Amino acid sequence: MSRRFRKPLEKKSVRDAKKGERGEKRGGKPTFAKKPSEKRGPGQRAFDRPDARFGDQKPRRPAKALYEALPEVREEKAPAPLPTKVQTVVVTADENNMRVDRFLEARFPGLSFSHIQRIVRKGELRVNGKRADSKDRLEEGQSVRIPPLKLDAPKTGGNLSEAGSKVLDELRKMVLFEDADVMVLNKPAGLAVQGGSGLTRHVDGMLEVMRDAKGQRPRLVHRLDRETSGCLLIAKTRFAASTLTGSFRHRSARKIYWALVAGVPKPKQGRISTYLAKEENEEDSIMRIAAHGDEGAAHAVTYYAVVEASAQKLAWVSLKPVTGRTHQLRAHMAHIGHAIVGDPKYFNKENWQLPGGLQNRLHLLARRIVIPHPRGGVIDVTAPLPPHMLQSWNLLGLEADRFDPIENAPEE
Prior knowledge:
The protein is α+β, with helices and mostly antiparallel strands.
């Protein structure tokens, strides 16, 4: 049973005095100016004053109008998790050839990577009734049984924070080409493409600010090393991602790189064909030249052509990789005795000194990418020399607009 607190009655003389004051106020002229002592602070309501009683002031209507005019001050409840049940979906034409994990990410933007790996590992996800691996590729028309999922509400595009707006501006400054399906960025040297140990800033994370109203965001189609600058292809739609990934897999994409190497390769044009395998050590990992049949070894092919030499000590080399192995170009140039200038992993020239004025940074540029457009036609984009390479070209007197002989290299 609730008990009401009753305030003790004031003395009769005090009550009479207050009645007299109220009567005088009603009889006097109305005034809207407050006394200095009655002015409130910005956060003090009328009934917060020591001498005020609850109910002395009525809520003012303008407060509601202000509330509606500034929706950003409203407190919104966090969206509840999205429950799902067992469902069977059919792979569409746009999803043809997608990896199982990418398929789930696209269909369920609120699904975490660890959850995807768990349901696949446990065999809860079935493709045409059979277990599937996360790296398996789907075909149009296949039936995919999806177990109950724990989904977070997908993030949607909206008003960006100040930090998000700066990231978006930074991305916009990198754009070399963009349409409704595809975007090509000029990735600066030093910016990682994906996250890793100790990395908090990378292109993949930056793309989060471009998430649309449906929760979808642009996604990476291929990779560049952290210190490599130049053309980085981004898919803006699920359809484009599937199509462009297929072009890379079927080697329909043509990539051209520029590098500054130690010495002048002989012959001036050639083909490098080796097997590469990853070699782990305590501090880092590198790609080593391997023999056919070695564990983890993969075939790698690169065409090279010397564009221009500088005093027989340095050479501007154009490179066309046929395959896309990790560190392929860097390992191949070191293998033929002409490592790329500024390469901290593969530069193995003893007693070799960097010419004065050149920066000791990786001189490797993803110069050009040519690939079929998902909707027809061809994407053909070229990136400019990054600042440290442009400085080297100027110091060595190399002409960046010279004919590139790698144009005539075979595609296989």
